[in-house]
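Action item from last meeting closed. Structure (280 res):
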């Protein structure tokens, strides 16, 4: 069975992951469906379950664009990785789990937009098309344990560390093993050299949005909208929550102009909005 030593500089991208057995055939992807400053304990447990069971990489995915790009870079840098175990709860804002599944099933357009996902910005602008295509060839299967948004029952497979560990174990077997409808086994490394690619900085390679400020504000509006109540109540004076979010991005209004957002249950949303608007 072919196994290869990952190159120097692997994994090329930093992130919320644990590096495990470099010769493992599987990586574990836990969807992060909340703010990065308030990660639930059950998601950390899934990450560690993947690492403890022998995954090459086990970590979290939060976004359908830059987060997925970093995952692609880290996986094609290790040809031993042939499976991804997808678990956790789907994020209603970014839909990164759906985007990963769509990428594997449908690929991307010529402009590197993931085909067949409802995610708001499924664009892989920062990686070459060749890397995206290599990722799709190298990964044989995404073992889909993903739960519905808001799921709390840790006995369901996508939130159960034992189920994640069993999925990783199944990928190690020399003979096909049955796991929740999948036939899994270690088929050896992908028979092409590793590609160690690091995403270029935005300063050295300006992005399209930087060159088009109006479009950048529109895209920021879509991001800010995820933290609004989404009731379209018009109490702020705007027709929709999206219209209010775009005005926020343009600096023409303030978050406290949304009466619903001022309620106690939206405290974390207000904090996230404040952090995003500071960066603007």
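Sequence:
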């Amino acid at each position: 069975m072919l196994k290869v030593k990952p190159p120097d500089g692997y994994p090329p991208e930093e992130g919320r992951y644990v590096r495990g057995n470099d010769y493992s055939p599987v990586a574990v992807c836990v969807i992060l469906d909340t703010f990065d400053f308030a990660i639930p304990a059950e998601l950390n447990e899934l990450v560690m379950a993947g690492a403890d069971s022998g995954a090459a990489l086990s970590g979290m995915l939060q976004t359908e664009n830059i987060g997925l790009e970093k995952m692609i870079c880290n996986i094609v840098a290790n040809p031993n990785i042939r499976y991804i175990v997808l678990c956790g709860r789907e994020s209603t804002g970014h839909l990164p789990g759906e985007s990963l599944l769509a990428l594997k099933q449908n690929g991307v357009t010529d402009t590197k937009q993931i085909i067949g996902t409802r995610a708001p910005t499924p664009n892989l602008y920062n990686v070459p098309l060749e890397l995206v295509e290599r990722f799709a060839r190298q990964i044989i299967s995404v073992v889909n344990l993903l739960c519905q948004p808001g799921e709390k029952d840790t006995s369901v497979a996508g939130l159960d560390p034992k189920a994640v560990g069993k999925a990783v174990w199944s990928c190690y077997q020399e003979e096909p093993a049955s796991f929740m409808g999948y036939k899994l086994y270690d088929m050896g490394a992908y028979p092409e050299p590793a590609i160690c690619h690091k995403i270029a900085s935005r300063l050295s390679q300006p992005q399209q949005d930087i060159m088009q400020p109006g479009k950048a504000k529109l895209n920021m509006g879509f991001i800010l909208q995820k933290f609004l109540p989404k009731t379209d109540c018009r109490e702020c004076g705007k027709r929709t929550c999206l219209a209010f979010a775009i005005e926020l991005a343009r600096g023409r209004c303030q978050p406290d102009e949304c009466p619903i957002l001022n309620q106690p249950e939206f405290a974390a949303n207000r904090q996230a909005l404040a952090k995003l608007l500071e960066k603007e």
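Note appended to the action item: The first strand starts at residue 17 and ends at 19.
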